[in-house]
Amino acid sequence: MHDITSLSALDLSQAIHRREVSCEAVMAGFIERIDRINPLVNAIVSRRETEELVAAARTADQELDQGHSRGWLHGMPMAIKDLSNAKGLPTSQGSPNYAGVVAEEDDIHVARLRAAGAIFIGKTNTPEMGLGSHTYNSVFGVTRNPHDLSRSAGGSSGGAAAALATHMLPIADGSDMMGSLRNPASFNGVVGFRPSFGRVPDPGQELFLGQLSVAGPMGRTVADVHALLQVQAGYDPRCPLSLPAGDMAMASDKPVFAKGRIGWLGDYNGYLPFDPEVIEICAKSLTTFETMGLAVETVPSGFDMDALWRAWRVLRHFLVAGGQRADYADESRRARMKPEAIWEVENGAPLMASDIYAASLTRSDWYRYMLGLFERYDFLVLPSAQVLPFDAGLSWPKVVGGRSMDTYHRWMEVVIGPTMAGLPVAAMPAGVSATGLPCGIQIIGPPRADIDTLRAASRFEAAHGPVRPALDQQIIAALGSMG
Description:
By secondary structure, the protein is of the alpha+beta class. It has one domain (about 5-480): Amidase signature (AS) enzymes. Helix content is about 35%, strand content about 15%. It has 16 helices and 17 strands. The strands form five sheets. Strands 8-10-9-16-17-13-11-12 form an eight-stranded mixed beta sheet, sandwiched between helices. The model has no long low-confidence stretch (mean pLDDT about 95).
């Protein structure tokens, strides 16, 4: 038996259900690892007491002894992203205005994880209110990249990604509005999946207008991510635009690459700035598709990308301001808000219905443009981030590829296209930099083709081979050895 924490989530589940390892031993193994590594990385926050967790694991063992399994996650430790509610745990959202506020009930997708047998050990760190792709806040501090502790782990699911990369968790949940499942996957060398809008119901989708953010799975393998998505996905009447689960089996006679062509969006013909090494690593990874017998073609410029950015800003300002307007209106609470949150509210306040409508028209034009691309290509590919993991002491990168960034999130513009079209995206490890930092790509699928996108990602994963960035020497020392 390998070290418990080295197993994939699915292999761990099988070992538990075959009774090769007890749930109590699994919990003890992960707690030991967390105790050694988390002080360096700061990925897991609001952790429950060890005695409580061991008792929960013993209960899970007793259920198995009685022939009852709650699901494939039975007895497995999970930590929920600190933007989602898990009953009995704080949902601080990285904000001093909400620090220590205990959730009274589970969010929809969290309840599904609990019902499938997961034991919630705590939360994973996130930027304040999820704003920005760098996980730091005044409540819990900075989450550091395990491949270089001086660097950012990305965000907003940065705590989840760093915990996965260090095997402090076997599987993790996250959410994504502006790349929050994709950027941290790239920065940490793990897999993130942004589902089609409506695939995984969550509180933001209880509103008809909340159509940018989604919840989704993260893992170290595509198979693990697919398994978690099966638990999270499915219609819920509380979310009026949620989708039925449908057939989510990966095995299918349907060809994954019927057209035999991959469209490389790259930097949108020079529109987006990149760190040169990022675009080089991502472009090099395209040869993997070619070894699979696919043609890779550069997609020519065909849309006004600056108009898309302007539309994105309007819709994001509108949604973020709506969620934080009450805090802003209270002078004492506003004083505790991060500058980026105040900026979002102040830009959202003067928006008129005509502004929202105009932005939605641009968004619809973009969706139709993407539909046209999928008539020619099976899947589209983009880098997952425009920079390598940056100095964790920075709030955000101010210059990318020689260009000044005019907002706190402009350096992540590469992720807005799939979000605006509501498309499924698999964020996959693509390679490592000369200094050993991870870098990844987005494999973008047609509308609602979540499982086909995961099938394509699985084929890429098998052909590309594992990407194993070296962990920081401090972490290796904390572990004693990497085995």
